[in-house]
Design brief:
By secondary structure, the chain is α+β, with helices and mostly antiparallel strands. The chain has a single domain, classed as START domain (Alpha-D-Glucose-1,6-Bisphosphate, Chain A, domain 4). Helix content is about 25%, strand content about 50%. It has three helices and seven strands, in the order βααββββββα. Strands 1-7-6-5-4-3-2 form a seven-stranded antiparallel sheet. Helix 1 packs across helix 3. The chain starts with a strand and ends with a helix. The mean pLDDT is about 85.
């Protein structure tokens, strides 16, 4: 994989509770900010999304893209870009690790984005960092606002 950006946060919930929110694509417009629509196009035999169409509106950047998801056990999901109007590539992952006796979860988000227009690498990394930080903040807020199971 090309140069990527990575960040982590700790969420007061179990890995299963965090992954349930990550896997609930229909609710992404409620907590991600930039995702205005999310539609699961294909699922695996366990009901997990394999392809998802996302409509994004991040101010100056508006895009519709489809991502292919791969589930690596209960604590990791990764994705790659299938198609997009503005992006050439988008590879990312969420990795979850239990902490504090399993009542908290460290969530690590890794992302690599390549746009179709020329852009300096440092600007791309900064954009990736903004995307990651907003996503982790929204995920933390969403998970911690739900009743514990």
């Amino acid at each position: 994989m090309a140069e990527h950006t990575r960040s982590s946060t700790t969420i007061e919930a179990t890995p299963a509770e965090v992954m349930a929110v990550i896997a609930d694509f229909g609710r992404y417009p409620d907590w991600t900010g930039e995702v205005k629509e999310a539609e699961v196009l294909a699922s695996d035999d366990r009901g997990r999304a394999e392809q998802v169409r996302l409509l994004l509106d991040a101010g100056a950047i508006k895009d519709e893209h489809t991502l292919a998801y791969t589930w690596h056990g209960p604590d990791e999901v990764s994705w790659t870009l299938v198609r997009s109007k503005m992006l050439r590539a988008m590879d990312g992952s969420y990795r979850l690790a239990p902490v504090a006796g399993g009542k908290h979860t460290e969530v690590t988000y890794q992302l690599t984005v390549d746009v179709k227009i020329p852009m300096l690498g440092s600007i791309k990394r900064k954009a990736e960092k903004v995307i990651i930080d907003r996503a982790l903040e929204g995920l933390k807020r969403r998970v911690e606002s739900l009743p514990a199971s």
